[in-house]
Amino acid sequence: MASALLTVSAALMLFSTAFTVEVEDPLFVGLHDNTSGVAALFLGFGVLLLFAGTAVGMRASGRGRIAVATVAVTLLLFGVFRAAVLAPMLSCDGSRIAQQADGSYTCVDG
After folding, report:
1. Please, what is the angle between helix 63-90 and helix 2-24, to 10°?
2. Which of 13, 43, 97, 105 could tie 34 with a disulfide, CB 3.0–4.6 Å?
3. DSSP output for the chain
4. Which domain holds residue 38?
5. What phi and psi values does residue 103 have, to the nearest 5 degrees?
6. Quick one: residue 35, left, alpha or beta (phi over 0 = left, psi -120 to 50 = alpha)?
7. pTM exceeds cut of 0.85
8. 71, 2 in Cβ contact below 8 A?
9. Rg of the Cα trace of the chain?
10. How far is CA 15 from CA 19, 42, 80, 110, in A?
11. Whether 46 contacts 16, CB under 8 Å
12. Residue 102: what pLDDT?
């Protein structure tokens, strides 16, 4: 059960990356749809499942706990990284977003 929860958690966190990959990559210049809210939602559900999977997995014994802890810490670090990347994008109220040369984001309505 814990492995299924942690696997779905990892998948949701990776899906959160897929929603903003064009905005984050400097090769994709120009305006893009602002899907940072959807990415944050997927990340939030992924972190929630991470905590659930960790709680279930810690009920195991010995090596199972070590494996669950290793996977959980890795996913938690990735979740923190994703949250740090998404945070500046979430302040955009517009429906379109573009990354500037300095790493900041420009929001455009319409």
Report:
1. 30
2. 97
3. -HHHHHHHHHHHHHHHHHHHHHHH-TTS-S-EE--HHHHHHHHHHHHHHHHHHHHHHTTS-THHHHHHHHHHHHHHHHHHHHHHHHHHHHT--SSEEEE-TTS-EEEE--
4. 2-108
5. 100, -10
6. alpha
7. yes
8. no
9. 16
10. 7, 7, 15, 25
11. yes
12. 80
- E-state strands within the chain: 32-33, 96-99, 105-108
Give the integer Cα–Cα distance in Å for 51 and 56.
9
Amino acid identity of 24? E
List pLDDT tens digits, range 12-47.
999 999 998 888 877 777 888 888 999 999 999 999
Q: In what order do the strands lie in the sheet with 105-108?
A: 32-33, 96-99, 105-108
Residue whose token pair is 């740090």: 84
* pLDDT tens digits along 46-64: 999 999 999 999 988 788 8
Domain count, the chain: 1
Task: Tell me the C-alpha distance between 60 and 67, whole Å.
Answer: 10
Closest CA to 14 of 6, 26, 2: 6
